[in-house]
Amino acid sequence: MKIVQCLLCKKECKLVNGQRGDCRVRINLNNRLTTLVYGKPCAVHVDPIEKKPMFHMLPGTTALSIATAGCNLHCKFCQNWEISQREPEDTINHDLPPAKVVQAAKNAACRSIAYTYSEPIVFYEYTLDSAKLAKAANIKNIMVTAGFINRDPLLELCKYIDGANVDLKAFTEEYYHKICGGELKPVLETIKTMHEQGVWVEITNLLAPTLNDDMSMSKQMCNWIMDNLGADVPLHFSRFWPTYKLKNLPPTSVEVITEARETALAVGLNYVYVGNVPGHEGNNTYCPKCNQIIIGRIGYMLTKYDIINGTCGKCGAKIAGIWD
């Protein structure tokens, strides 16, 4: 009996004929590793780029957002579990090969394509081929990902991906193992590799009450970001809402998420945001030099934009990101 091994992510599933990987969408089919979701997204939407969230990349523009079934993690708090924890036979799928993805982005006047909602790593070939065509058409590519991938396939992706929001779930291996079914170390390596390869990286950390909302853990994570990526990588603290397998937990308190933001700013990070709390001052972008609001936001809508040629419109300081 021939065994095929998938080398896409750190789980490196060994599959006998007919067996699927942990992600549900990659299969040993007649002794050949095959994807079941190429060109078959179950979600296709036009979103504000701020929804990804990407706050330092083409603000105020839209991203064509696509996703297939499947994920190589199994987070108990997943907001999109209806597709991420499903097999492709259980979702309503569209026929949208890479060329049609790019054309759809053009038709909708989207400046970017976001591979998002579930996990673009598990629909790797579809993401890669779409990103190649998009890059040739001068459309930006964004990955919204948990970053659980091996280095070699990641390096190939980095040639075509312009920006990424990486979901850094927590800063302990125990949390990754118990809550997500994964590992922390490979995610940290992914973040560093993307940053080194010139991908614009933003990080999201969802704070779940009693599980990863300890400020000492947040501070440790922020120190790692400072030491390995620098002060200009945006960090989004996102408010938890009860869902999927964690409906027993309360929403994150605004006080806790505010304290996390203050902790990150005290460590020295320049751009720290608060998500899922509309109207919070942490929705805005502040110049790290003069501390003036240079991008104002309510939800995903911009209320102010004062960046000129990548610099603060007030004091002229350089603002890190991908701007017009």
Description:
The protein has about 325 residues and is of the alpha/beta class. The protein contains 8 helices and 17 strands. It has helices spanning about 80-85, 100-105, 125-135, 150-160, 175-180, 185-195, 215-230, 255-265; strands at about 5, 15, 25-30, 35, 45-50, 60-65, 110-115, 140-145, 165, 200-205, 235-240, 270-275, 285, 295-300, 300-305, 305-310, 310. Strands 5-6-7-8-9-10-11-12 form an 8-stranded mixed beta sheet. The chain has a 3-stranded antiparallel beta sheet with strand order 13-14-15, with no helix packed on it. The protein has a two-stranded antiparallel ribbon with strand order 1-2. Strand 11 (about 235-240), helix 8 (about 255-265) and strand 12 form a beta-alpha-beta unit. Helix 2 (about 100-105) packs across helix 3 (about 125-135) and helix 4 (about 150-160) runs parallel beside helix 6 (about 185-195). The longest helix is centred in the last third of the chain and has 14 residues, at about 215-230. About 45% of the residues are buried. The model has no long low-confidence stretch (mean pLDDT about 95).
Kindly summarize this structure in a few lines.
It contains eight helices and 17 strands.
Shape: globular
Q: Kindly name the structural category.
A: alpha/beta
Roughly what fraction of the amino acids lie in strands?
Answer: 15-25%
> What is the chain-wise order of helices and strands?
EEEEEEHHEHEHEHHEHEHEEEEEE
Mean pLDDT: 97
Sheet with the most strands, sense and barrel status: 8 strands, mixed
Q: Which strand order does the major sheet show?
A: 5-6-7-8-9-10-11-12
Q: How many DSSP helices? A: 8
Alpha carbon gap, first and last residue = 55 Å
Helix content: 25-40%
